[in-house]
Structure formats: C-alpha cells, structure tokens
Design a protein that fits this description.
heterodimer, A: 236 residues, alpha/beta, Rossmann fold, 2 domains, 6-stranded mixed β-sheet, 3-stranded antiparallel β-sheet, 8 helices, B: 273 residues, mainly alpha, ABC transporter involved in vitamin B12 uptake, BtuC, nucleotide-binding (chain A), ATP hydrolysis activity (chain A), ABC transporter domain-containing protein (chain A), ABC_transporter-like_ATP-bd (chain A)
Chain lengths: 236, 273
C-alpha cells in the first residue's frame, strides 16, 4: 500500500477551488517533486497532505503505517523565527512532540533521537547555539533534523532551498538524496528549481489547477509539458 | 535597612502585596515570553482595559470584583483570538476595539453610580492596599493553577510559539494552546491589575521577556531569566513604593525599565566581543 494516495481530491478556499481532481500516490522510498507555477496550488496541496486543510471532495488516504501527524515537515521560510531565542537542540527536540501525545515531558529516547538526527546532519556541534545566529544553510539543517525527528517514513519539504546560495543549495540536495536512499524515507519536495528537481527526483507531479503530469522523472523529461517547462522559460 | 525590612513585613497589607505580586509577576513573565514572540504583546494591554470595565461594573453592583472580572476577561481573551483568527479585522484593531469599548463602558458605569473618585484612580494606576485576605487566597490558588498548567504544557507551548504550522502538522492542537495562553494571561492580568493598575499591568508581561532576550539565547534560559528578573523587579519596586511612598505599579514599571536598560547594555557589550 502507498504511503499517501490522493483520490479525486479537490481543495479550495471559501468556495473557490484551487486544485481539483488530483490523483496520485506516494510509495515508500519515492522522491517526488511537486512543480508548477506560482498560484498553481502547490502550497494548498501541502497543507492538505499535512492534514491542516480538509479536502472539499475526494479522499487523502494514509497507508503503509504512516499516520497523518508523522510526516516530517520542513515549512517555507518563516520570517517570524528570525529573532527567536531557541537553541538548535530545543528546535530539533520539538520534532518529537508528535510521539508524546498528552504526556508532558520528553523521555530519554526522544533526546537520543534528537542527538542522532543532529549527528546525521552534521550539526551536533551547533546544538547549544542560538537558532537565530545560524547561517541560512545551518538553519535549514536544523529544521530538517526536526522534521526527521517527527517521521520514520516521509519527509515533506516546502521550497527548502529558497534564499540559500548555490553551494549550500547543492549540499542540501545531496543531503536529501542521501536521506532518501540510505534511510529509505520517501521525500516530497515542492520546488521552483525544476531542473534540479528532475535530476534528483524519481517522480514528478506537475500541478496547474489539476495534475498536468504525474509519473517518473524520466518520462517527464520526454513529455511535452516537461520539455516545455524544462526547455527554458525564455520561449514562453 | 534591616529595620525597614522588618517594619515593612510587619504590615499585613505589605505581606499580601509581596505574595500576590510575586506570583503574578512570575506567571506574567512566563506567559509574556510566548506573547511577545508571537507578537501578541498588545493582548495584555487590551485585556487589562477589559478588566477595568469589569471591575467598574462589579463595584457598581457590589459584586466580588475578582469573580466578575475573571470570567469576563477570559471571555474577552477568547474573543480577541477568534477575531484575530478569522482575519476580517486585523488583530491589533480587534484588540483596540474591545479594549476601548470596555474602558468606555467602565467609565460610564462609574460616572452613573459612584462618580469619578479614588476608585477609578486606583483601578487605573493600582493600589498597594487593594488586596484583601480573601483575594490573596484566590490569587494563590489561581496563580498555582497557571504555573502548573504552564509547566505541564511547556514543550507544547514552545513548539506552538516557535512554529505554529509545524506544531499543527505534527498533531499539536495549536488553537487549543493559543487559547490556553490567552486564558492564562487573562487570569494573570485580573489578579495583578488592582495592584499594578489597568494602565500598567501589561508591563509585567512585556518587560521581563524583552529584557531576557537581550542576553539569553535559548528558550529555556529566556523563560527562567524572565521569571527571576520579573519577581526581583516586583519586589524591589514594591519596596521602593513603601520606602518613598510612590505608587506601587509605577515603581515596578520603572524598576523593570531600568533592568531592560542594564540588560541591553550587557547585550551590546557581548555582541562587540
């Protein structure tokens, strides 16, 4: 069974449909990139996958042991966090909250998991540092560690490389690919960077109010819409 | 000096002021960190005006002030969050609407009943004599509840304050905790406002958090530092008020402002290094 299956899903705000008739699924170990222009409904879809916004029609089915609140989510850059006093460790550890339910305090396992994820992403030496003092790339690593704390099977990344310089962006993509392959964690990434998306991802979902393309990255390259999108925006 | 301290604590009203004041300062400091970081600072100010209206009405009908004011202010807190949430009226405008309406209502009621007198003055700027033994008992119980709830939900409050969307995505009921923070704030404000004054109580919420953030770099240290500095400033402020016969609320605010100045300087020196 797939981790997430969307059957005929339509989502909207106050009667206005943003995306409609979505049909696709995410399997264990997939690396799916969601691409599309601004306003094509990518962020809305992300909210629905996370269970923050209900679908108007259709069904989003979670399977293969995945629970709705066990998606490791890396949100879009949030300006409010800029001046926030919190250590990297505090931020990463908060990813374990979904396993706590109503219980108030973290256990030893939670702390060990946080330490392990920080080790995995090479930010162990930043643990005591203040989140707001980190560079953009380090902040994203910290938030990625938090996301990994929250999941065993699926990461959902919403435009994770926005505002990062090219070198750091490259490193971040490598990191995601490594996590996807070595830890067998499925990755769903919303991205503007279509070329890198096709290079890295196993599957592409092209949104434009509805699903314009869903399939493997290879097929996308050969498809008409893929060629047009990849061919260079200068022709449009 | 020791004579003054002994003398100060020989008055029951001073002991009550220290006891209730410290508890309120502690609660306000803890909640204040979240409110300031979520840019909800003005909620404190708005709720204290609602409290003023409620106290005025309670006095007019000769009801017990706290038992009228607490439910009214809690209700106002929930209402402000609701309006903020649905987005038709901006949050700060919602707070201004509710707080000025309550203030106006309070002034109307007072002018129709007792007339503008020392009561109004005391509500506005606070009085060190305001607390009865009954009030102290209620305050200690309520402040205890606020503290226990805060500690129990500390990790969730951190998550919701730092990143509401992520917290929600991992199944933390962000709205519930936002409401919890607002309700606890409402209770704290009502408990403290008769001593600090409706116009000054919000300083207890805002100052300690901002002061700590000049120097502290983790959430936990900000929380602990805020709690300590807040209680310390309150005790010093009340003592000053006793010794020099200055208004209690204003003295506490001045001490808080001084603490902020000191921490800012320390913070700046640290940055230079």
């Amino acid at each position: 069974m797939a981790l997430i299956t969307c059957e005929n899903v339509s989502i909207g705000y106050e009667g206005q449909t943003v995306v409609k008739e979505l049909n696709f699924s995410i399997e264990r170990g997939d690396y799916l990139c969601i691409v599309g222009e601004n306003g094509s409904g990518k962020s809305t879809l992300v909210k629905s996958l996370l269970g923050l916004k209900g679908a108007d029609r259709g069904k989003i089915i979670y399977g293969d042991g995945l629970k709705k609140n066990e998606i490791g989510y890396l949100p879009q850059k949030n300006e409010e966090q800029k001046g926030f006093p919190a250590s990297v460790y505090e931020v990463v550890l908060s990813g374990r909250l979904n396993g706590r339910g109503w219980k108030p305090f973290y256990r030893k396992e939670d702390k060990e998991a946080a330490a392990e994820k920080m080790e995995m992403l090479g930010i162990t030496d930043l643990a005591r540092q203040c989140f707001r003092d980190l560079s953009g790339g380090q902040q994203q690593r910290a938030l990625l560690a938090r996301a990994l704390c929250a999941t065993k099977s699926l990461l959902l990344l919403d435009e994770p490389v926005t505002g990062l310089d090219p070198i750091v962006t490259g490193e971040f993509y490598d990191l995601i690919r490594k996590i996807n392959q070595e830890s067998n964690i499925a990755v769903v990434m919303v991205s503007h960077d279509i070329e890198t998306a096709v290079e890295n991802a196993s599957h592409i979902l092209h949104l434009q109010e509805t699903v314009r393309f869903f399939g493997t990255a290879e097929d996308y390259r050969k498809s008409r819409i893929g060629k047009k999108f990849l061919g260079g925006e200068e022709h449009d | 000096m020791i004579d003054t301290i002994v003398e100060m604590f020989s008055y029951p009203f001073m002991v009550r002021a220290f006891a209730v004041g410290s508890l309120v300062a502690l609660c306000a400091a803890l909640l204040g960190v979240s409110l300031v970081l979520k840019q909800y600072s003005m909620i404190g100010d708005g709720l204290s005006h609602v409290g003023f209206g409620a106290l005025a009405v309670a006095t007019a009908f000769q009801a017990a002030p706290l038992s009228v004011a607490i439910p009214v202010v809690v209700l106002a807190a929930v209402l402000i969050l609701r309006i903020k949430g649905n987005g038709k009226i901006k949050g700060d405008a919602a707070i201004a609407l509710i707080s000025t309406t309550s203030l106006a209502l309070g002034v109307m009621v007072i002018s129709m009943t007792t007339g503008m007198n020392t009561d109004v003055y005391n509500y506005m700027f606070g009085s060190i004599l305001a607390m009865s033994a009954e009030d102290v008992r209620l305050s200690v119980i309520l402040a205890g509840i606020v503290l226990v709830l805060y500690l129990l939900f500390y990790n969730k409050i951190f998550a919701v304050t730092f990143d509401e969307t992520f917290a929600q995505a991992t199944g933390v009921k962000a709205n519930l905790y936002n409401t919890l923070i607002a309700v606890l704030t409402a209770v704290t404000i009502v408990l403290g406002m008769r001593m600090m004054g409706a116009l000054l109580i919000s300083s207890l919420i805002i100052f300690p958090a901002l002061t700590s953030m000049r120097v502290c770099r983790t959430f936990r240290s900000v929380i602990i530092n805020s709690a300590v500095i807040s209680v310390l400033c309150l005790v010093i402020g009340i003592a000053i008020s006793y010794v020099w016969a200055t208004p209690a609320g204003a003295s506490v605010v001045i001490v808080n402002a001084a603490a902020l100045a000191v921490y800012s300087i320390v913070g700046m020196i640290r940055c230079r290094k």
